[in-house]
Amino acid sequence: MEIYKERNFSEVFSDSFGFIRQNFKSILLSFLIIAGPFVFIRAFSASYILANSFGNIYGNSLGTFSIGSIISLIFGVLSYLIILGIVAEYYFIKAENPDADINYQDIIQRLKKDFGILFSTFLYTLLLSLLVGLAFGIVFFVFGMLLAGVPIVGAILMFFLVIGLFIIVPNLSFLVVALYMIRLKDRKSFSDALSIAYNLTMENYWQTWVVVFVAMLLVSVIIGVSSFILGILIAVQAFNTASVSTDSFSWVSIVGFFIEFVTQFIQMILIFITMLWAFSLYEKKFAVGMQQKLNEIGNTESDSNNDDQPLII
Fold first, then answer.
1. How far is CA 210 from CA 29, 98, 112, 204, 217, in A?
2. Is the dihedral of CA 58, 60, 64, 70 positive or negative?
3. pLDDT tens digit string along 75-102?
4. pTM for the full model?
């Protein structure tokens, strides 16, 4: 499969799922071995929080909620970075060698070199997000104070805020994935990579919105079904159990752990789709794949001309 190739809506989804299907065993093994330890701790802490919340209903808490939350947050970030890195490295290897048989050792070696870029990009993105969030927070606070006596205006502003988030979030998600991809590929500075990712997003805003929104919707449905199953199990236990002890809701931790682990892998599909669309837009703007093909044709013609030259003794 060509990585640097312009794709339409249907091609992005069909090629993404085709890529995952062709490399499923390798991708799954890489996920379990490389991201697995981080996802395991994230899933364990999340299931601990769930069981702790369930126990609080009956006045039988398992322990300190805040500790589990902090651990879950830290390893949630690390899990995301590792998973995003795995997806990027798979695409990079296939772009360099379409016939490559990728194994988890290849991914580990490349991630060792690239993790610094992944983590620094996260820190820069976090800082930028805090600054932007602070600016918007101040603006909304001022408007809230000025319009505190006019409830209808506040409701209208809240309505437009929700609409704005609905329009922005999918493309913001794409911009972040494209930012990581560009930094890993071109080794550009954060500001340069952000500028390119921003231009790719704005120049293809609505196409990007549709692709990412549908991908997010698809993944959300799958995750929602899993969460619904968990919710049913918890509800059944709540109605059928008069008194709940630590032992009796340990199953909640187990089920929650499994759902969280599966959720992390399902979200990997979203990153595969989003990043392939980023490669498509990158090709549309910079024609990397086309340039590679032209170079290959030129090299082939050069070799052919050399073969036609008479042998001089």
1. 31, 28, 34, 10, 10
2. negative
3. 889 999 999 999 999 999 999 888 888 8
4. 0.82
